[in-house]
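quick one before i forget lol
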Amino acid sequence: MRQVAYETFLSFMYIAILMVLLIACSADNIKYSSGIDTVHSYGDGEFQIAKISYSLLLSDEKYSACLVDEIKKYKKIDKYLYVLGVVSKTPVFVIADTQSNTSKLYILSDSTFDSLFINGKEKMLKDGAITAYSGIKTLNENEKSLLKKMFKGVDWLS
């Protein structure tokens, strides 16, 4: 009876140690922790999608910046996160590189990057963390094709 209890205890300890090691090893690359509202976290956690009230938003946790106020659609392909949405009532398309933690923000209207309310945007520009482009015409052909294919049915893309 004692032998069985001892073996059970050793098995339990072995499993517990393995679980602790697995959790510790998988969390090594996470720099930015998820919040209670986080739906998805990408890369080292710098890019996060959160649900606030009835809408999803895209944030850059390193800069405490909301890149997209209202996500219409999003998709992750390989190391890239593609997000179509609105910031400061302006339609935008964001391509976030989840490995290099950089992003491209395409403004899909006549608005300018300066008119968008993005906390810390000057520092992000200075650090090379974000590049802003005005107009859908600034997308290269691959990005245009991907945008129209992925987000078919979004009326303000034409």
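fyi The first strand starts at residue 38 and ends at 42.
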